[in-house]
Amino acid sequence: MQRFGIAGLGAIALFTTVPFFSQISGSALAQPTVGIASNVKPHGHIQLRLAAEKQILTKDQQGKQTLKWEPLQGQAVVRPGDVLKYTLSGENKSDRPIKNLTLNQPIPKGMVYVLKSADMANKEAKITYSIDGGRSFVENPTLKVTLPDGKVEIKPAPATAYTNIRLQLPSIAAKTTLKATYLTQVR
Q1: Which regions of the chain are under pLDDT 70?
Q2: For residue 158, which phi and psi values (nearest 5 degrees)?
Q3: 88, 123, 126, 187: which could form a disulfide with 168 (CB 3.0–4.6 Å)?
């Protein structure tokens, strides 16, 4: 059994970009937190919250498996193989729409992104990924792989290579909410 301390997350807005950072000793989890991001234009701000939950699978007396999510708080205990769900939610509390909002969420150290698990309630949002620590983002990351015969092929990047998720929203209307989720697995 592993025990991990949970550190807070920060949100800073600069040129309508909101990065979220988490640093955890040993491995990484996220403690529910609140951040405020300000748009470059006056009167625009969005309040963001990042929460983490641990997947709990149980079986009833008939052997039917059920899935539930347990919120992680304080000193969380996780084991290799545990699946965690991160939920990023926010609300545009201003009277104006927020344009071109970009949210950058690093995959915490000690975690592996669960491929194709990122989901955004706003279907206009674009979800991209980085495999180079957040320097570049694409929809489908790839790697060059050298085969035993020396040929080089382009292959889809494995889940272990993913380092960041970026959510780009063209607009968030005034007084509306946003929600995004993604899964990770403890290494």
Answers
A1: 1-44
A2: -75, 160
A3: 126
Convert the pLDDT of each residue in 9-19 to its tens digit: 333 222 233 33
Torsions phi, psi for 160 (to 5 deg): -65, -15
Domain that holds residue 166: 2-186
Count structural domains, the chain: 1
What span, in angstroms and rounded, lies between the C-alpha atoms of 133 and 143? 14
Are 11 and 20 contacting, i.e. CB atoms less than 8 angstroms apart? Answer: yes
Count of helix runs (H) and strand runs (E) in the chain: 0, 16
CA 40 to chain centre: 24
pLDDT score at 18: 39
Amino acid at 99: K
Query: What's 14's DSSP letter?
Result: B
Please tell me the pTM assigned to this model.
0.76
Q: Is 178 exposed, middle or buried (0-12, 13-18, 19+ CB in 10 A)?
A: buried
- Written as one letter, the residue type at 48 is L
Round to whole Å and give the CA distance between 6 and 107. 15
A 10 A CB-CB count for 45 gives 16
Contact 24, 108 (CB under 8 A): yes
What local confidence, expressed as pLDDT, does residue 43 receive?
A: 41
